[in-house]
Amino acid sequence: MADLGGRRLKLAIPDQDGGLHLLCERVWPNQPSVAALDELGQQLTEHGGPLWLSSSRPAAVAALQSTAAIAPHLRVVTAAQVPIARNTTGTGSDRLLAALAGSERAQGACLIADLGTAWTLDCVDAQRVFRGGAIGPGLRVQIDALAAACPHLDAPAGADQESIPNSTASAVRAGTLLALAQALSGLADQWQASTGSGPRFLTGGDAAQLAPVLGPDWLCAEHLVLHGLMIAAEQLQ
Fold first, then answer.
1. Which domains does the chain have, with CATH numbers?
2. Neighbours of 149 (CB within 10 A)
3. Contacts of 156 (CB under 8 A, 6+ apart)
4. Any idea which residues carry the catalytic annotation?
5. Least CB-packed of 47, 58, 113, 192 within 10 Å?
6. Does the pLDDT of residue 115 top 80, yes or no?
């Protein structure tokens, strides 16, 4: 299983308990080096079987498809192939796969916040229909963009969630991390009023940073895209 996100490639294989074992996670450019492609090809040869891939990066996928050692193993799962009902258009396979895994765990309605290069917050209703959601710039993108535009500002630093920031560093933290947490919570409250109550899942690289701020109503669920890919692959084989 491979989840090729905005910046990183994650590889995993199913384990004996029906879960996933993460093999590696690395930064992956659109045009990776020959050495990186050769290494990936060697991994695939050692493990055998197909490489089920989800990605919203066409250039990066094309590089994999043009590599002789990788192409025979590659099975790109498109949005149309993800086995979840939906009433949206243009939704990427990554969002649908995370929603598929979330709805399987919830056995019904749920919200999925995937916090990576971009953050997404998506809804599945009680009938397990994907209803759509929101996309915004991820935490690191926000911090890097602010630093580039305003290099005189301090980097974000600790402040209690309930206190009013009294330093530049804590104000930047409030305007990025805390503001993102408030946005997620506010949208979640609004949307669950119409889709029905259910668990709120956190996944993605920044989930650990947001979890303490969001509180116990949000459940950390690692690698939901990969889990959804495993579910989809079982039906597509």
1. 2-76 (3.30.420), 84-223 (3.30.420.40)
2. 8
3. 143, 169, 170, 172, 173, 176, 177
4. 94
5. 58
6. yes
